[in-house]
Amino acid sequence: MRQFVIIMLTATLVLGWGKTGHRVIGKIAEENLTPEAREQITQLMGHADLARISNWADEIKSDPKWDHSHDWHYCTILEGKEYEGPEAGGYAVKKVSEFTDLLKRGILGKKDQIDVFRFIVHIVGDLHQPLHVGNGTDRGGNSVKVEWFWDGESNLHRVWDTQMIDHMQYSYTEYAQQIQLGLSSEDKEAMLNPDLMAFVNTSRSLHPQIYEIGEGKLSWEYVDKNRDLMEDRLLKGGFHLAAILNDIFQ
Ligand SMILES: [Zn+2]
Lower CB density within 10 Å: C or N end of the chain? Predict the structure, then answer.
């Protein structure tokens, strides 16, 4: 029983954006692939539906075969420090770089290529959830207990993974469309940046606002204050993912 509880705690630690968040990012990325990338991804996967595969890396967590991947979904930047590598906690940055490199070199068999590809699509999304770039003290906000509207007990990580997104009651396709409304082609071009560390550092820099939770009773005021920020992370997640894939599949 004790072991079961520990496993459950570990599992909640690393979930990342919920299903809708990952699908929104996948959908936005798919809409911004170059024709070359779309073509090569379709050859690899049989389709280029990134929303459909974006949650695979979370779904396999129940398979013991993938236990070693549980800490690939986050990284840590200690307070007042720069990113110092996976020693501080979490392999997300390392894995995205490693997998990007493997795909570029084209040395993997098809099955491994598919797995590595699905991990990139997922982890790049996770790294845009600001609490997946943790501070090393509270398990990415999982230890920060809060109350969420009338649902009662929650934690800050879960609020950012799922509860704020679900609160909007959009499907992922509606959300992907809403978030991109009114963007010019210059706006899109400016966001197509494959620089992994730049968006990891941005995620971390957003913590002061995210941790402004007063006494921890979160409801419409918190949503009102953070909605734009949350949607901006989903938007940038989509464009950064597209940029990384466009760079791999030239
Ligand atoms: Zn994840």
Answer: N
Q: pTM (2 decimals)?
A: 0.93
Ligand 1 centre to CA of 186 (Å) is: 30
Give the single-character DSSP code of 73.
Answer: S
Task: Report the CATH number at residue 148.
Answer: 1.10.575.10
Q: How many domains does the chain have?
A: 1
- The C-alpha angle with vertex 43 and arms to 41 and 46, in degrees rounded to 5, equals 90
Q: How far apart are CA 113 and CA 40, in angstroms?
A: 12
In whole angstroms, give the CA distance from residue 96 to residue 13: 19
Per-residue pLDDT tens digits for 152-173: 999 999 999 999 999 999 999 9
How far apart CA 165 and CA 15 sit, in angstroms, is: 15
Burial group, residue 131, by CB count within 10 angstroms (0-12, 13-18, 19+): buried
For residue 184, the CA-to-ligand 1 centroid distance in Å is 30
SS3 8: helix
DSSP SS3 for 111: helix
For residue 54, report the distance from its CA to the centre of ligand 1, in Å. Answer: 9
* Ranges of the chain whose pLDDT falls below 70: 1-15
